[in-house]
Amino acid sequence: MTDLLRAEQAGLPGRLEPGDFRMGAPALVCLVGPNGSGKTSLLHALARIGGASGEVWIDGLRPERLAPDERRRLLSYLPASREIAWPLAAEDVIRLGGDEPGARRAMAVLDLAPLARRRVDRLSTGERSRVLIARALASRPRLLLLDEPVANLDPLWQLRLMAGLREAVRDGQGAIVAMHDLDLAGRFADRLVLMEKGRIVADGEPGAILGSERLEQVFGIRKVEGEWRPSPSPARD
Amino acid sequence: MSRISLSLLLLSVALALALSIALPWPPIAALLEQDRPLAFALLWELRLPRASLALVYGAMLGASGAAIQGLFANPLASPDLTGTTSGAALGAVIAAYILGFSAPLALAFGAVGGALGALLLLLALAGPRAETATLLLAGLAISALAGALTTLALALAPSPFAFYDAYEWLMGSLVDRSLEQAAFAAAPAFLAILLLLRLAAPLDSLTLSEEVAQSFGHDVRRLRIEIVCLTAFGVGACVAICGAIGFVGLVAPIFARRLTGGHPGRAIAPAALIGGLLLLAADLVVRSAPLGRTLPIGVVTALLGAPFFLWLVASMRWRLGR
Known about the structure:
heterodimer, A: about 240 residues, alpha/beta, Rossmann fold, 6-stranded mixed sheet, 3-stranded antiparallel sheet, 9 helices, globular, B: about 325 residues, mainly alpha, ABC transporter involved in vitamin B12 uptake, BtuC, 14 helices
C-alpha cells in the first residue's frame, strides 16, 4: 500500500533542514515547537511553497506535477495569517477552496450557514478563522496542512475543530497541524512531532513526548502538579 | 458575475460604440444623400478608428488595472497611479524627439520599454504586495520623475516645436488617427487583454495569500512577470498612439469588482468592458462639449476621475477610522 505522505529530504533553504517525513495510514499529527522552530516551514515544504527542496509524494503522486484542480484534491494548506486581501463574502471565500458540494459540506461542518453572505472583512477574527478553515476543507483533500487552526477560536470551537479533524482522519484524510496548545495536541493527536531550530527533534506517541526531557529542553517548561510552568533554568538556551 | 449584468454591460458597450461612430449624425445624413462613398469613407476612416481606439484603449486600461490591483492586493493600484503610463509617454517621447524616429513601430517600442521600466522600478521600490502608502508614494515618485524627464527630453529635442507638437498627444487624444494607427494600438492591446483574461483563476486565489496560491500550484513569480509584461506591452502600444489617459484604469476595476462579488481575477473581463465604456463615454463628452474646440480626452477622464479618486481615498480613511 502506498503511503499517504512520503517526503524525502524536504526542506526550505535557511529555514528548514532537509529531512524525511512519512505518514503511512491517515493520522492526526500535531507539530509543536517554540516560535521560530520551523513548524510553518515544514508545512510549506510539504505543501511545496516558496522554493521547497526535496521531493514529496501524496498518495504516490507528486503535487508539482498536477494542475491546480487536481492538486487541491491532494492537499490543502491553511496559513497562520487570517488576513484576506479582498472583501469577499464568506461563502465565496470557501468556494475558492473547492467545488460546490465540497464547499457546502465544509460550511456545514463549521456551522457557517448564518455567516455565508457576510463579508469576511466584517467578521471577527475567530469567525474568519472558521471561514478559512472551511476553505481548506472544501476540496476534501487527502492531506490537510493546517497552521495554527485553533488560534483565535473560542474553547468550544477548539474542541469541535479537533474532534472534526479526528473524524476526517477516520474518513481517510491525513492531517498535519501546527499548534501551541500542548494539552489539546496531547489529547487529540495520534502522533506528536517536536521541532527545534528548523529540524524535527522528536517524533512519536503524544504521551511519551509530552513527558519527555527533550520537550522540557526545547520549550523550557515542565508539567508540575498538572500545569505547565517554566522549568528552573538553564533548560532553554 | 451574473449573466444579466454581463449582457447589460455588453449591450451598453455596443450602444456606446454605435453612438460613437454615428454621432454627430446630421453631417453624415446630409453626405449620404449627396455623396454616399464619401460618407462611408468618413465613417470608415475617421469615425471608426476613433471609436475603436477609445474602446480598445479603455478596455486595456480596465483589464490591466484589474490585474495590477489583484496582483498588489490593493484597490489604488492602476497603470496611471503606478507611473506606467507616464513611463510609456517618456519612452515614446525619447524615441520620437531625441532619437528622431517617427514610425509608429519605433514609438511603440519606446513606449513599451518606458512602461516596462516604470513597472519594474515600482516592483523594486514598493515590493510585491505593497502597502497603500508605499505603493502610492513609489508611483508618485515614478510619475514625477518620468514627467520631469519627459519635459527635459522635449526641452533638449532638436525640433523647436517639440513642446507644442507633443502637448496634444501627451494630454491624450484619439482625434485624427488613421485606421493603420488604430490597428497598431488595438492589435497588441487586444492580445494583451486576451492573455490577461487567462490569469483570472490564479489572481482570485491570490486573495487567500501568496502562500495559498502557491499551494494550489500557481507560480506567483511567473504571474507577476506576466502581468507586468502584458500591461507594459498593451498600455505601451496604446500610449504610443493616443498618449497618456488617466483614471480609467483605476475606476473601471473598482466598479467591475462590484459585479464579481469582490473577486479580483474574475473582474478582469468586466473591467475591460467598463473601461471601454468609460472611454467611449468620455470621448462622446469631448465631442459634444459646446466649446467650439476639442478638449484632450485625458483632461476629461481626469476631471471625472479625480473626484472619484479623492472620494476613494477619503472613504478608505474613514473605514480605517483615522
